[in-house]
Structure formats: C-alpha cells, structure tokens
Automatic annotation (TrEMBL):
The keyword Nucleotide-binding does not apply. The keyword Nuclease does not apply. Gene3D superfamilies: NADP-dependent oxidoreductase domain. GO terms for molecular function: iron-sulfur cluster binding; metal ion binding; oxidoreductase activity. This is Aldo/keto reductase. Residues 296-326 form the 4Fe-4S ferredoxin-type domain. InterPro entries: 4Fe4S_Fe-S-bd, 4Fe4S_Fe_S_CS, AKR, AKR2_Oxidoreductase, NAD(P)_OxRdtase_dom_sf, NADP_OxRdtase_dom. PROSITE patterns: 4FE4S_FER_1, 4FE4S_FER_2. CDD domains: AKR_unchar (cd19100). It comes from Sellimonas catena. Keywords: Iron, Iron-sulfur, Metal-binding.
Length: 337
C-alpha cells in the first residue's frame, strides 16, 4: 500500500484519498457503509467541505469512533473572520470532533494573507493556536492564486485540479509544491467524469515524479471504491495499453474544455452551465441515452435564453468564453437529436 506525506505537515496518508463531495447524493446509511468500508481497507484520509451540504455530518456519523486513526480535511468559503469561526464551529460539531487536521480556504478568489483586511488568515492562526485546527491549507481552481499561495510560504497544502489532462503549467505547479514542501492534494483526478478508466488515472498519479501527490477520488458508489481499493493490492502498471488510452484522451480533450466545476453559476437564465457547456464531450464519452432525455432537452433549450450578461465568463477560473461554448454545445446537441 503506497503512502504520501503531505509536505511539511508530515501527515502520512494512503495514496487513495477519499473525496467526500459525492456522498451528499446518497443516503446517510449508504454513506456510512461506504466510508467505513474505505477506512477498514486502509484509507485514512477523508476530505470534505462545509459547502458539501450533509457530507460532514455523514462523515462524523461514520468515523467518529476511529477519529484518532484518520486524517480529516474540510474547507471554509468564509470571506471574513466572523464567518470563518461560524463555519469552523459548525464543521467540528458535524464531524463530531474537537479538531480538524487540515483546514482549507475553499477556492477563494484571492490568496488570504495576514493584514489583507479580510481577517481570514489571522482567524486561521488563532484557530491553530487554540488547537481547533492543526494545519492550514488552501484549495483553488485558479493557477495564479494557487502559485501565489505556494510561494507565500503561508500554506502547508494546496488542493488543485490535477489529472493526466493537466497542462504543462499545471505540472510545473505540482513540481513547485514538491520543491517548497507544500502538500499537493489532487482533486478531479478523473477530470470531473471525463476520464473513465480509473486504472490509468491511478497509474498516472503513482509515477515517481508525482510521489508527493495525493489524489482524492470523489466516491459515491461501492464499485467505485472497490476499483480504487483493488489498486492498493496491485497497482496498475503504466503499460503501453494504458499509455495509449491516456494519449487518446489527451488528443480528444486537448485545448479548452469545461471542467464542470460550476464556479460560474448560478446563471440568471437558469442554465445548468456545468453540464450544458460540456455536453458534446459527455455525448461522446458516456452512454448517450441519459443526456438525450426530455429533461435534458429542456435544460439544453434554456441556452436559447442566454442573456449574454457575461457573469459566467467573469467567474470561470479557466478563462473560458462560456456563452460561446454553450452555443457550440447546443448546436452540436441538436445534431444528435
Ligand atoms: S452569459 Fe448567459 S450563460 Fe452566462 S451567466 Fe449570463 S445568462 Fe447565464
Ligand atoms: S464554464 Fe468554467 S466555471 Fe463554468 S463549469 Fe465550466 S469550467 Fe467551471
């Protein structure tokens, strides 16, 4: 079983991290079974967020009895000190614990620093002093903010999207984290559902240059967990077949594509941008029937009501021209119908 040390935190975690965003979508009973199975099979790192509705509560219910054997990270999207404390106290209560191993600022649009007027970093330091959190981290989708955070020396970990579709600049960021001993937590290792072969995704992360990378797999179903657990017994080899698969995906997904992160939402015209703006990819990379249902036809039709307000473009961390992307995806969608 491979392990990763999260930079200067010294926290030693199983190479399979558990991303607890998707357990929002399943019942509490099922979530408890899933989380306990993960723990019983060696997974010791669980990542959640205050913003993931009842994910923290489910995690608390499943794992409070083994609290001393696991590492928990959660996140706050607070914009000021007052909300920071509100979030932290709530997370502690829901997780049924009196400390968080790693507390992260959740995708802020800027890099919180002492004296920046937000009071966020000061609050985190105070929480650390009080023993309520043990390490301070940051998550982000914007490479500029991520780099600034790593170079600031203020953060012990960075959580950032990383998969085998990563750009050169993103790979450089991973290397920068290694050099600065900042733990690198990889979210979206399956590129938000666009990568279907978990074996190639896992094998990619296990390459020697990514020994310090900790992927957190978003797990919702037992078979998904079983797949990742099976790689602990026998790590998939990055052989010719897997390399060919990776190359094929890279060719298909080259350039600008919507990652489905949803940071551009809500949309005043009610468009479900995070799925509609990547419909062409979904149609080609997943079974089509579900995406062509009446419900989805209605959702796609809403693109006709786009107000061209540009709000989505301003918020997209990948700098995509979202209205244009929606239009292209809608035209393509109609050809499938
Ligand atoms: S530009 Fe169109 S898609 Fe984007 S937020 Fe405005 S209405 Fe929604
Ligand atoms: S358009 Fe940009 S912000 Fe919106 S879901 Fe896609 S990648 Fe995320």
């Amino acid at each position: 079983m491979e392990h990763v040390v999260l930079g200067k935190t010294g926290l030693k975690v199983n190479k399979n991290g558990f991303g607890a965003l998707p357990i929002q979508r399943i019942s509490k009973e099922d979530a408890v079974v899933l989380l306990q199975k993960a723990f019983q099979n060696g997974i010791n790192y669980f990542d959640t967020a205050r913003a993931y509705s009842d994910s923290e509560e489910k995690m608390g219910a499943a794992l409070h009895e083994v609290r001393d054997q696991i590492i928990i990270s959660t996140k706050t999207a607070a914009q000021n000190g007052k909300d920071f404390w509100k979030d932290l106290e709530m997370s502690l209560e829901k997780l049924q614990t009196d400390y968080i191993d790693l507390y992260q600022f959740h995708n802020p649009s800027f890099c919180p620093k002492p004296g920046d007027g937000s009071g966020l970093y000061e609050a985190a330091l105070e929480a650390k002093e009080q023993g309520k959190i043990r390490h301070i981290g940051i998550t982000n989708h914007r490479i500029a903010v991520a780099k600034e955070a790593v170079l600031s020396g203020l953060y012990e970990t960075l959580q950032f999207p990383f998969s085998y579709l990563a750009s050169e600049e993103e790979v450089e960021l991973v290397e920068l984290c290694r050099q600065k001993e900042v733990g690198f937590i990889a979210m979206k290792g399956l590129a938000g559902g666009l990568i279907h072969n978990s074996a190639s995704a896992y094998a990619f992360m296990c390459q020697p240059q990514f020994a310090h990378v900790e992927p957190i797999w978003g797990i919702q179903r037992e078979w998904e967990l079983d797949e990742f657990l099976s790689y602990q017994e026998q790590a998939p080899e990055l052989n010719e077949a897997l390399l060919a698969e990776i190359q094929k995906d890279k060719d298909q997904l080259a350039g600008e594509f919507c990652r489905g992160c949803g940071y551009c939402m809500p949309c005043p015209a009610g468009i479900e941008i995070n799925n509609c703006a990547r419909m062409s990819l979904m149609l080609r990379r997943a079974p089509q029937e579900a995406w062509l249902s009446e419900e989805w036809q209605e959702k796609m039709k809403k693109i006709e009501n786009c107000l061209h307000c540009g709000n989505c473009m301003k918020k997209c961390p990948y700098g995509l021209n979202t209205p244009e992307l929606l239009k292209r995806n809608y035209e393509d969608y109609k050809t499938f119908l």
